[in-house]
Each structure stands twice: as C-alpha cells, then as structure tokens.
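Sequence decides. Consider this:

===
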Amino acid sequence: MGVVAAIGVLLPFPFYYWLWTFPKTWVELCGRGRDPSKVMAQVSHFLKLLQFISLFSVSSLSWPPPFYFWPLFIFGQFLNFRVYQLLGESGTYYGVRFGKNIPWVTEFPFGYIKDPQYVGSVASLLACLSWVPFQYILLWVLGYVFMIWVESNEDPATRAMPLS
C-alpha cells in the first residue's frame, strides 16, 4: 500500500502545477459559462479526498492525541479558513491566473505570515505525525514547498483572459 498511498498524497500537485503554469488551457477546457475557479475547486476537493484516503490507509489512529495535536491543528485550520474567508473561492483557486480581478488583501494573516494557507496546511499535517508515518507527511509537505516555489514565479503575461 505504500507506493499507492504515496501516489495518492502527491496526486494534486501535478494538477496545481499545470493550472498555474498553463491557465489558458484550463479556461478553454472549462469553456464559456463555467467558472474555472469553481471547477478547479471541485476537482481539488476530489483530489483532497483521495489524499485523505491515502493517508488514512497508512495511519494508525489512537486516542487521545498527543499534546501538540490540538494547537497545531486548530492554528492550521484557522489559517486555512481565514485565507478562504478573505480571498473567497476565486482568490483561493487561482482566479488571478484565470483572468479575474482579485483585490490585494493585507489583513491578518496576510502581511504577517508568508503563504499562510500553506503554513496552515503544513501545521495541520504536522499535528497528525503521531498517526501517520513521517514519509507521507514529508511527501505532502514537499508538494506544498514545490507549489510555493512554482507560485512565487508568476508571470502576469501568462494569465488567461476570461471567456466571455
């Protein structure tokens, strides 16, 4: 199950890379009348479900969780929900790459934490270290580090134009 679980953990990252690097193809694939951010969110939720199933397949759950679980998990999820609250679906799911005008946000956690959604996700993953073997957490974190690097090299000239 190890290789299958590893593939499941890494599954979303080629998709994110493709959308970030070639947003025009995604907008065209979605077609007129379909919001590319909304479709990305739907596909991403399915891929996230596969990631969780993959982790669960190699996990050994026990109760109660270790002392560090709750602070890391609550902080991580707070960051994730706050980012989504401030950016909305289009801001969270590459709307700017799909030609949408996403306002610049400076409220917490933006301006205080670099890449707050990724930091929140990593914190939530680290909270689960007592249940999930380290190598799977590491793979997932490396996927996030890769996407931080990819997203830090945004070329506005490659943004898609919305289909009208």
About this structure: The longest helix spans residues 69-92. The mean pLDDT is 92. The chain has seven helices and no strands. The chain has one domain: 1-158.
